[in-house]
Each structure stands twice: as C-alpha cells, then as structure tokens.
Hints:
The chain has helices at 2-20, 40-49, and strands spanning 53-60, 63-69, 75-81, 87-92. The chain is an alpha+beta fold. The protein has a 4-stranded antiparallel β-sheet with strand order 1-2-3-4, with helices on one face. This is PepSY domain-containing protein.
Amino acid sequence: xxxxxxxxxxxxxxxxxxxxxxxxxxxxxxxxxxxxxxxxxxxxxxxxxxxxxxxxxxxxxxxxxxxxxxxxxxxxxxxxxxxxxxxxxxxxxxxxx
Length: 97
C-alpha cells in the first residue's frame, strides 16, 4: 500500500513540473489606480542609468514587465513594482533569433 501511495505522489509531483517549466514571474499585485506611480519613462531612465538598453516596458497588473539588454549584451526580463519601482524578479533570457 505504501508503494502505491509513493508512486502516486511521485506521479503527481512529476505532472506539476511542466507547469513550472515556464519559469516566469506572475505579478499578483493589484493595478495601481491612485497615489504616486513610477512612470515607464522614470523606470526606463533608471535602467538606462544603470547601463541597460530597454527594449520594452509593459504593464502587468501592478507591475512593469521589462525586457532589456544588459551591458554584456545579454537579454533580461524583469518585473518592477509599479508604485515603488522596486525590483521584484529578474532573469537572463535567451537571445531571440
């Protein structure tokens, strides 16, 4: 009986792996509707001052999704808080061909 339970547990864990394969951040912050907001222009300037070449900034909930290239030429994807400009998540991405 324990063997069956372990097998089921392993199968269920294995079934969840493809869902995690995207390795992307899910912004769960609500959209900012009032108060002070860091604008896309301010965020782009901040990143450019740090040496990034910004390609795209998109609003996702209460976050900004940023696609940029770092000083080494590596593409990155990052999420920033819309209200504070705080970095929430970042990773290097594969170069598009």
